[in-house]
Amino acid sequence: MIDDRLHAAKLLAEKLGFLKDRDCIVLAIPRGGVVVGDEIARILGIPLDVIISKKITPPGYPEYAVGAITYDGVIYYGHDWQRYSTDPEFVEEVRNKRTEVTRQIQSYRGNTDYDLEHKSVILVDDGIATGATVCAILEWLSKKKTKEVILAIPVIPYTTYEILKRFDIKIVAVEVPKEFSAVAQFYKKFDQVPEQTVLSILQKRKK
Question: Which residue of 83, 88, 95, 105 has the fewest C-beta atoms within 10 A of its own C-beta?
Answer without folding.
Answer: 88
